[in-house]
């Protein structure tokens, strides 16, 4: 399958999705969204694929939603058309997605990175929510996901001043999981994704679901939800295999059942 604005490649059990609108620093227009939804749906449905990596170029992961596309839109266009609602389908992907961010991740670009399950940043990464400078606000969940990731003080700072945060500050704040030299970014992210793709598939889905539940529930509800998923995995063939493999000192051989 080929896409107008994405390059998609399978490296073993890892799907590498590269945003490819270099002339606009990967600004996210409607075509990018349509391509992304299609590519992620294909990834989710492909049993040979266990984890995705979403990346951009060395200069820009994505410099935001496409300002030129939005510039002439009215309230009726945006609200009536439910602009950006399609991004909910990105977050509905059930298998894990790692964002590998080099260069600018601004506005919608930062929001898209935060929709992924975790971020690995190149050491040249710059994150920001500069929408305030355009007299608007984050609109793809940025204020909410950033506040949950790094807390109120820094989120207010980022969204009200529109300043950028470098990779070191992003790691110290908890926005990104790891920082690596930018030259190694894609290889490191694919390596992490291959590790994830090598785990038992049902347990992997369960981890993603339970960690995400932490942002939707009380602690007590979340702990019960976690325990029920944990209990449920004892109905899987892979649990029997995983524990037998440990006892027999050999790698597990997963069936996804
Ligand atoms: C459309 C964009 C774009 C964007 C860059 N380009 N960002 N086009 N939408 N978000 C285009 C430029 O117009 C230019 O095209 C080309 O990409 C290269 O960009 P330059 O500005 O020439 O590059 P540079 O000088 O290196 O500066 C890089 C930059 C700057 C600092 C990232 O491009 C920038 O500030 N971009 C906008 C960042 C931003 O405000 N993002 C938030 C968007 S709002 P031409 O054809 O002129 O050469 C958003 C909303 C989310 O995301 C939801 C709520 C509305």
UniProtKB/TrEMBL annotation:
Pfam families: ECH_1. InterPro entries: ClpP/crotonase-like_dom_sf (IPR029045), Enoyl-CoA_hyd/isom_CS (IPR018376), Enoyl-CoA_hydra/iso (IPR001753), Enoyl-CoA_hydra_C (IPR014748). Keywords: Lyase. The keyword rRNA processing does not apply. PROSITE patterns: ENOYL_COA_HYDRATASE (PS00166). SUPFAM superfamilies: ClpP/crotonase (SSF52096). Belongs to the enoyl-CoA hydratase/isomerase family. PANTHER family: ENOYL-COA HYDRATASE, MITOCHONDRIAL (PTHR11941:SF54), ENOYL-COA HYDRATASE-RELATED (PTHR11941). This is Enoyl-CoA hydratase. It comes from Blastomonas fulva.
